[in-house]
Fold this protein.
Amino acid sequence: MTMHSVANHAIGKAAKDNIFGASAAAKAAAAKVGAENIVNATIGAILDDNEKLVILPTVDKAFRSLTDDMYFSYAPISGLPDFLKLVQDDCFGESRPKGYIKAVATAGGSGAIHHAIWNYSEPGDTVLTSDWYWGPYKVFCRDMNRKLATYKMLTDDNKYNLPALTEKVTEILTKQNSLVVIINTPAHNPTGYSLTSEDIANVIAMLKKATADNGKKVTLVLDVAYIDYAGEREEVRKVFKNLSDLPENIIGLVAYSLSKGYTMYGQRCGALINVTASEEQSQEFADVNQYTSRATWSNINHGAMQTLVSILTDPAMKEDIRKERAHYYSLIQSRGDLFAKEAKECGLKMVPYIAGFFISIPCKDSKAVCDKLHEDNIFAVPLAAGVRVAVCAISTKKVKGMAAKIKAAIDAVEK
Ligand SMILES: Cc1ncc(COP(=O)(O)O)c(C=O)c1O
């Protein structure tokens, strides 16, 4: 190229999406040999055992019952007032933390993470997450002139690696005055790992200690995109209690998404929720995030927000959607547990799967392993640290036998 058409900061940015690449390969194979003969483990959405996209019936009903005004008119920039109240209840359940809490509507969980990084980290600074992470975190950081650093998520005996997190937090805080830490839990993408409530309590205690007498500030972002498929509803929400009574220099943010919990992936609705012990910080959160929304997408999907409101203000619908989610949670869980059982039987090493859409298998050359799996018509996503298998999207009968085939592919590639 003789001359770049774009500004300097934009040169060379191209989101090389491994997920998209793997999904395109699966689609091409399906066209050739028939969808029933391939295993497409690349899709991040729930498919039922007939491999049909699941739309929760209650969401379908509520969404299709809105008035024209609710689909077509502008919503307030911060979000519909009822949505902003109800989304907090939906997120926290019976474990609402003590403190000032406000929410802002965002374009999915992605929008929430975008706003968290933009408004809580400084340009040029480093944001921290675990070594197994959802790829777009890095895209957000780079696009906003931030760097992304990682720590080893698990110890050798597969416990949450608080020492590794502590070391990185301490190191980064010698170089910058504030730090954003993103933890995706429960039912982490790409591994299905979940931190216990005690793990989160230990993280917060460590952050308090790391900032106790240096005047520094840490924002803890809990990305809970998969919380509705992570276990018993109130049990998995107990982690939020740990956000109670935070000191002023530890800011709690929760990135909430309607993509999975309401199967409204394409309707682009979510929320960023702030928990703080300070009324002024709470108002500051609302002000700056409304401003950033104005400067990015203005207002978000009116109908999607109203769908949450319609469901959560109708006791029967509220009950129904919980039953529907519990059903699909069990379906995905049984697929994941089957994979884990077979992995154990054939000696395939995997990251401990607790719940959720994905399973990860550590390996050295994930691209070569995924290419090898194409010979068996299995399509999975190659990540830096291993292979991701979307158990949310493959029928139970196709999960059967997969672990052994992955083991064979790894053995063939790494021999
Ligand atoms: C870890 C993680 N966080 C957040 C999201 C947010 O998704 P969305 O922007 O579709 O709500 C996703 C979706 O794939 C995810 O995997």
Q: What stands out?
A: The domain at 8-57+318-414 is CATH 3.90.1150.10 (Aspartate Aminotransferase, domain 1). The mean pLDDT is 96. The radius of gyration is 21 Å. The first strand starts at residue 39 and ends at 40.
